[in-house]
Amino acid sequence: MIEQSLVLIKPDGVERGLIGEVINRFERRGMKITALKMVWADENLAMKHYTDDITKRRGEKVRNMLVKFITEGPIVAMVVEGADAVEVVRKIVGATEPKSALPGTIRGDYCHISFSHADSIEVPIKNVIHSSGNAEEAKQEISIWFKPQEILDYMRVEELITIGRKAFKKD
Ligand code: ADP
User: Fold this and answer.
1) Which domain holds residue 16?
2) Which atom of ligand 1 is nearest to the CA of 115?
3) What is the CATH number of the domain that holds 99?
């Protein structure tokens, strides 16, 4: 199924000059960027993104640290589209804990800190990137960061080739 996922390059990714690198990972996999912008989020926007769900799963302290971290500098927000995009994007991104993220994933290639180390020094895990956890979350998150008219409909050349072959295929 063609899906859309929300991706954020967090302030650590922007400050480390990883914008191009991250976008490239999705593009080279054949996924389509259908919306893209740079934002310096305020607390209100950050709280809409990191909802009570984070408090339930990770605790109030982590949520507060995350909101502070994500408003500390500019971030890049984008919508990535493709077949089963939510799951495929998560695979490209890698595990939440950098220590556990496999090499070849974005987090596994650009960070290494563990949950226990981050917790012991009371810092948020700076893992370069956010991506939606499931299809429902993706819809909700996309609506927080983008207006419908900011998401653009076009075809990548691979789609044109596929459609072209289908159209001209003789039985
Ligand atoms: P993901 O970003 O992989 O979907 P979560 O939604 O569970 O993971 O957590 C949101 C973000 O919170 C993580 O990407 C990470 O930056 C941060 N985080 C999660 N757990 C911790 C923790 N124990 N200590 C510090 N930061 C954390």
Assistant:
1) 2-168
2) 23
3) 3.30.70.141
